[in-house]
Design brief:
Keywords: Covalent protein-DNA linkage, DNA damage, DNA-binding, Hydrolase, Lyase, Protease
Helix content: 10-25%
Order of helices and strands: EHEHHEEEEEEEEEHEHHE
Number of domains: 1
Protein name: Abasic site processing protein
CATH class: Alpha Beta
Pfam family, one: SRAP
Number of strands: 13
EC number: 3.4.-.-
Shape: globular
Distance between the termini: 21 Å
Enzyme class: hydrolase
Number of helices: 6
Structural class: alpha+beta
Length: about 240
Amino acid sequence: MCYSFAVPNNKLLSLLPIKFGVDASAWKQLRLDQKWESSSSKTEIQHVLGLKGQPRASQFRLPGAGERVYPRYFAPGVVSDGERNWLRPLRYSIRPERSAVDLATRYSLYNARLDRVLEAKTWRPLIGYRHGILPFTHFFEWVEQKGKKTQIQFMPQGRSLMWAPILWDYWMSPGNEVGYFSCALITDDPAPEVEAAGHDRSPIFLNADYVEIWLDAQSSSAEEWQKFLKGHRETVAYRHSLVA
């Protein structure tokens, strides 16, 4: 699982091993969503977004460079429309396109287990259809040490940027008031350093030479993609430290 991660700045985003454009319309849509939220009552926000209860915080939070992204925050990610790669704001917790209720507060919809992408009804329609990558500088996990929950920060050694494969979707409210892209990060068995620190899963660091292939989602079957992600990892070791 990946509890949260840190957003890279624009200079670091330029280190991604692919070419991409900035999807101005998607970023404009997020600003419009934020504007709609600020002018709406909590009751209206609850109804339009299909929330379990009235919101206690903004549903369209966008951390800046260097800040942490938690589930249901937005962050920059790269997806393909079949012809070109685009940098878009993605909510870190998937919202299926036809969902009437936002289940992100009830279930961990921000991480997709690689061993379950072919069977879980949330992930199965997306693998082989909507792929992307999520860039970040480091990630955070909760581990138990001496009977207490502790946060640990993991950073790739010798690398200032890493990227992980994601599945994404687009949701529009029934009345067309708001719409946004969302994603789930694909995780697998932990890297040795992550396991040694006490956590049982970690993001996949996709090999740079295979990022463009992954983004071409419909070029292979779902079963082939599962094998692909098992065999095309970046070789990297992780440093880690406790979060004060």
